[in-house]
Amino acid sequence: MTRIILMERPGGPEVLQPAEITLPPPGPRELRLRQTAVGVNYHDVYVRSGLYQTLPLPGVPGIEAVGVVEAVGSEVTGFAPGDRVGYVSGSYGGYAEARNLDAALAVRLPAGIGDAQWAATLMKAFTVCMLLHRVRRTRAGETVLVHAAAGGVGQLLCSWARHVGARVIGTVGSAAKAEIARAHGAHEIILYREEDVAARVAALTGGEGVAAAYDAVGADTFDGSIAALGFEGHLVNYGQASGPVAPFTPALLAGRSLTITRPIVFHYIRTPEKLRAMADETFAALAAGAFTPIDPLELPFAEAAQAHRLLEARQSPGGIVLVP
Question: Fewer Cβ neighbours under 10 Å: the N or C end of the chain?
Fold first, then answer.
């Protein structure tokens, strides 16, 4: 038997309930993984609330974890019992003490960083690699806008963008979060509750606007992000913490020849080749000092509901993990 967190219906954090299942042996192309740290992401909140209806119910949420290989299927090559691996998967099933995982999803993790740090960092780091080097290549000398700059992805994004030579303007909601964003590489800070973001960006850039805006907030920040862009600017809407963006006409983009994308990280690691390339580039950036791993809040495995409450209340230090 192994413990899981089961979701039978969408709703509040209370729908996340501990349960037990019998775990069969791994299939021919699977790894049996004893999980040591399970990442809790905002994607999980969207799934739990019903905003994303992508998990067949009843089901086990969770898209990111770290663990130790206990057994390998008959057709698996490249992994052996005792290997420490991490994964990011849109197939869910992460909220579990142990699981069987498609071996094509696993990446062997570099040493020197703890399991909890990797569980809080891997998906976020892949997301930032996607944002800066896949969706649109950020260049030295550009100015970029990062919303929620003190959040988990925001911290890594500010740091990595600065590392490649961009000037980073971050938005945050408090003076305390401003210090976090600055510590992770933001050159300038906008307190969005006190200042008009687009007007402040215009002042900071001499009216030029930013080359790119990275926006995981969604509905509340979309108009300001558009207004903050310069000519040929690009809005990357990669999340919707405040709700989905309302429909808009493409004519909205015509004033400055703007572009917009809505990327999903799973699409950028959808094949073993793409996953390996993403992992290699991410691990190389880490080794080069482009970002530092997140030190997460660690909670007991059974407290998944509390993890979601803290995440939605924006009381996460940048990452939360469940420890089986």
Answer: N
Is 299 a domain residue? Answer: yes
Domain that holds residue 247: 131-263
- Report the C-alpha gap between 189 and 141 in whole angstroms: 18
The answer to whether 127 and 43 have CB atoms below 8 angstroms apart is no
Kindly report the CATH number assigned to the domain that includes residue 314. 3.90.180.10
In 3-state terms, what secondary structure has residue 144?
Answer: strand
| pLDDT per residue as tens digits for the range 184-233 | 999 999 999 999 999 999 999 999 999 999 999 988 889 999 999 999 99
Contact call for residues 229 and 258 (beta carbons, < 8 A): yes
pLDDT digits (tens, 9 = 90+) for 6-37: 999 999 999 999 999 999 999 999 999 999 99
Q: What is the DSSP code string of 156-176?
A: HHHHHHHHTT-EEEEEESSHH
For residue 68, tell me if it sits in a domain.
Answer: yes
On whether the CB atoms of residues 128 and 60 are closer than 8 A, the answer is no
Name the domain count of the chain: 2
